[in-house]
Amino acid sequence: MVEFALVLPLFLILLIGVMEFGFMFNALNSVNYATRDAALIAAEAGNNSAANCAIIKQVFADLGAPTNWSQVTGIRIYLADVNGNGANGSRVDVFTSGSTTTCVTGQDSLGHDITTVYPVSASSSTYPPSQRCNILAGCPSLNRTGIDTIGVAVSYQYAWHTPLGNLVSGLTSAPLLTKSNAFRMEPVL
Fold it and tell me: In CA terms, which of 74, 84, 98, 109 is 20 to 30 Å from 123?
């Protein structure tokens, strides 16, 4: 009985830790998948004026259960270098939580616009769709000699799913998960 009483708390913490790791790993993979899909949409959308809405729509479409839209703290659409870096550079559109963005996502059978409201809004815009180069020969008016590489980064505030944060000292706040992916834009010849 004494051995059981000594081992049971450690076993429960280990079991809860494994379960929490599974939830966190799922959230990390979901965020990574969402950024990869959104970066692909960004590469295909090019300099279309509705590109940012398409990118945001894809991020939220890919964040399925057990992830939660309300935990997305930011989306960055940025001009990347050939290695995919540049999320904190000078050319970036930043969407943060706290307000909303309304996007037209299609039309119904009567021709009326279908709109969707996403829980992020533009807080700064130094890389709008009109400033994106998807022309194979480059964009002299934008001072670019080739096609842009566009990246999408998502910040997601993970929330504990188990009581692990209360059981283990030092785990008071859940981690902020941030992932990014970048693709070369599809060229216009």
Answer: 84
